Amino acid sequence: MDRLRSFFVIIFCICAIQSYSQDTSAMKKHMQNRIFDSAAIIANAILQKDPFNFEALLVKADIATHNRDFATAKKILTQSKPSTIVERAMLFNKYGALLYEMDQFDSSLYYLKKAFAIDSILEHLNYNLAVLYHHYQDDKSALYHLKLETNNHASVFESWIMMGEIELNNNNLSNVLEICDRIISINRDVYTAYVYKGIVYYRQEQYELALNEYTTAIAKGVLSGQLDLDIFIRRASAYSQLKKYQKALDDCDRAIKIDSTFVDAYHEKIAIYHDMNDRLGMCTTLKELKKVSPKDNKIPVYQKSFKCGNG
Fold first, then answer.
1. What is the CATH number of the domain that holds 101?
2. CA–CA separation, 146 and 9 (whole Å)
3. What would the pLDDT profile of 27-55 be if each residue is shown by its tens digit?
């Protein structure tokens, strides 16, 4: 009888461990995919069984930070009790990231460095350090930490994207293409990788290639919900360089249809009509711009340049 009872106890423990492991794995996956509501539900379920579960508490803190509820996030983190040295590094990392969001940059660096001293390859730590160094305009240190992050955690796409952004800002175009191709080899649906490739090709005056990348970016952005209006203006500019003016205007109008106050679309339309020597188009668009942004500092320049009158 005792042996049978022991057997069932062992089976129960194994099932409980498997259930906890599955819950934790699902919680992390939802966080990685930014499905915060689902992650919060799982975290709450774990905490009902174990109120001091460290990983679930960190997830709750991350979600509070994402929601800009810094007081709650700080309370959760200060009450969390790490049981290992690695968990201590995780706590310092989360606290440092929180302080960055609260614009307490020096304090953020202090805690992130403490985490780095314990575990220099902790996931997301080097990305957080890179973000901070980028804020301090220290791109050399930022790139150092981004390379550490990507070498040890290739799936942290934020690191690849930020590395691409820094290299793009420094006009290291071949490096940007290499980074973007690496991102796409891991995940073909990362919208920003195609945007950056398009920018590189545009700067290289390879407008057909730029157009292809921007078109792919739009398709990926629609599917992922990451689409921003700038991409239509970028593609419009590429169309314009290829003298495909009507398609360029269509992209501007598409952006305006989504957000009629998006002034960059009006500026791009005026530039396109200028290339077409279409004074009526320029003046009509200027009139529309005045309605949505009457204090736009380019309006006097346009008026002086192509004299549309007072309308």
1. 1.25.40.10
2. 47
3. 556 555 556 677 778 877 887 888 878 88
Answer yes or no: is 305 within a domain: no
pLDDT tens figures, 190-218: 999 999 999 999 999 999 999 999 999 99
Q: Residue 61: which domain range? A: 14-67
Domain identity same for 134 and 92: yes
Tell me which amino acid residue 7 is: F
Q: Model-level pTM?
A: 0.79
**Which is nearest to 97 in space by CA: 142, 56, 124, 128?**
128
Two structure tokens written together for 22: 């599955």
Residues 6 or more apart from 231 whose CB is under 8 A from it? 195, 214, 217, 218, 221
DSSP 307: -
- CB within 8 A of 299, min separation 6: which ones? 286, 289, 290, 293
Q: Are 30 and 42 in contact (CB under 8 A)?
A: yes
Q: Beta-carbon neighbour count of residue 163 at 10 Å?
A: 25
